[in-house]
Amino acid sequence: MRLMLGAEAVVIPLGALLAGFAAFSLFLLVLGKSPVEFFALVWKAGFSSAFSWQNTLSRSAPLVLAALCVALPARLGLVVIGGEGAIVLGGLAAGVTGLAVGGLPGVLGMGLMAAAGMVLGGLWIGAVGALRIKRGVNETISSLLMAYIAIALFNHFVEGLFRDPGSLNKPSTAPLAESLRVGDMPFISAHWGVVAGALACILCWILLEKTTLGFAARIAGDNIRAAQVQGLPVGPLVIGFTALGGAFAGLAGFFEVSAVHGSANGSLIAGYGYTGILVAFLARHNPLAIFPVAILLGGFEASSGLIQRRMDLPDATILVFQGMVFIIILLSEALYGRFAIFTPAYWERR
Amino acid sequence: MNTPKSLNRRRFLGTTAASLAAASLGGLSARPAVAQTALTVGFIYVGPKDDFGYNQAHAEGAAAVKAMEGVTVLEEENVPESQDVQNTMESMINFDGAQLLFPTSFGYFNPHILEVAPKYPDIRFEHAGGLWTPENPANIGSYFGYIGMGQYLNGIAAGHATASKKIGFVAAKPIPQVLNNINSFLLGARTVDPSITCQVIFTGEWSMAVKEAEATNALADQGSDVITCHVDGPKGVCETAVSRGAYVCGYHADQSPLAGDLYLTGAEWNWAGIYTDMVAKTQAGEPIDNFVRGGLAEGFIKMSPLGPAVSDAARAQFEATRAEIEAGGFAAIKGPLNDNRGNVIAAAGEAFVETDIALESMDYLVEGVLGSTR
Hints:
The structure holds 2 protein chains of 2 kinds.
Chain A: H1 2-31, H2 35-47, H3 50-74, H4 83-100, H5 106-135, H6 139-159, H7 193-210, H8 212-222, H9 224-229, H10 234-261, H11 272-282, H12 287-302, H13 304-311, H14 317-332, H15 344-349
Chain B: H1 5-28, E1 39-44, H2 54-66, E2 71-76, H3 83-96, E3 100-103, H4 109-116, E4 124-128, E5 140-145, H5 148-161, E6 166-171, H6 176-190, E7 197-202, H7 209-221, E8 226-230, H8 235-243, E9 247-252, H9 256-259, E10 263-269, H10 271-283, E11 291-294, E12 301-303, H11 312-327, E13 333-334, E14 337-338, E15 344-346, E16 351-352, E17 369-370
Parallel strand pairs in B: 1-2, 1-3, 3-4, 4-5, 5-11, 6-7, 6-8, 7-17, 8-9, 9-10
Antiparallel strand pairs in B: 10-12, 13-16, 14-15
Helix pairs in contact in B: 2-10, 3-4, 5-6, 5-11, 7-8
Keywords (chain B): Signal
Protein name (chain B): Purine-binding protein
Organism (chain B): Roseisalinus antarcticus
């Protein structure tokens, strides 16, 4: 019986996912394309071989951390959608710190870079939480607008103060020393950010489910009045959770700079913060679900190219696909508690 | 970064085995050897391939390659300059067997091509932008064209067409390639009338249609009556300029369908010649130079046909100058010339010809350009 009660959380999203696949298949049939070929290509490009997995994992690494920036504040009932700002500023902080710590041993230097990225990312999104608590500013709007400010600041510094004079045609900070580049994992050409993302998800799950802090946050998220009446520190909770989310987004920025780009430059503004929102919502803000969902979306995106080339569909096809799945999963929220088989009453009657 | 050796070795063994098998089969079969070997070529664009601009210019080149015999062309558009392009390149190699890749966006080179190329020593990577140095892997090449000369010719057409003696330039970022285009455009116009000035507005982004339209409106408000640009997709600039009644000089690709009678001419890339040449060389097993450059004479760039608004006098000067440039050794930047802050760029008698490497680190706007690089 306990199993069936828990099953609701798995069966409904999976069902919604399948319904999304079905709806998209109809869309493809209307266009005169084969859904079978589509899903075969998604499988081939995203999950069928070592290379596919490398492609998928490397795409999902930044998504996992970006999704945590949405999922953590969501526990408090906050919809933060400006993780992109924390990613680019975290990347900038990491890139600039990397220039100062080039003489240190690699691991220590990378640790400092990651810390710098996390601190700046945390301050940035933490400020969103503080604005919410101190001034009553809507966090959704402020985080989005602050993402634009972050990108403008990023461009200002990368094209001005921190610009490497040698980066003539593509303004960048100076290249990082080789010792400060995060390498690939053994056996697969995907960087350690994947592992960091998985660990971060587990830590967040423990924080949310197994600590009093997480419990307090959930109460505040469900009913802020009740939480206040109970004397829970709602203000520090909001600022702390938004800051922690921002810190993870900043960490994603660090990995992009250290593992992928080798310096902070405009390529960092790649929209991972926005795809992270999708991942967090699909995972229903459950940190343990974020990792597999990010891999699923990473696999979808990995197949985009092959679908463009083999099926002669535009690159937006995968976006349409993701959008359909997203909407159906949101709609499925209404189904929770509607199926008798998942309720204790059903099992007691038997 | 360390790469998994197992993947390389497996790939290497795989390809070796395949080519051995192919060779032995070839020896056994009675069919005569085919002149052209089958070749798969991949093109990767950073934006849409019908953007009337940078990406369309490359896609037109790809279309010419498609028409060649024995060639399969793969195309992928809207690929960001991030991990995504590395994955796209490897996907084209691993899933579709691409042997020659053209990742066309400037930002694909460092670090992405530099990262992927060493893993696939048998695959050729050709990059637009001219960044290859001898320290880079030998299977990478870079090519580029002296398109500043095209903007100089644009300037001549603009100089004849302007009544207000003010011309305008919507620019993306103050980097050497762009500055060279702005300066060339003004210097071309000043050969017609030395009192002409050029207002420049930087949008800060390669592709940001709203800002580009705003900038174009601002230029028109200030009296500019001929407008050109250097952004990835000139569509917004063209359409806005036309709606304000200003003449347009094109860039990257032919925008005459957008600007109609107000289109004077345009500086276009002509990648078809280069791409078909590189593909033919690869088919024939000949090496491609790692560092390829050229201008009008080499067919790397071309000018859009002159529009109906171009006067006979303008046409005559345009053609004469084009011939001069094609003859080689032409310099747009020549003394006596100051920048717009009064520093000497070239003393009397000093000249920077189009091929001069010093032009590729340009950091100034010449006298007569209204605007600032910072």
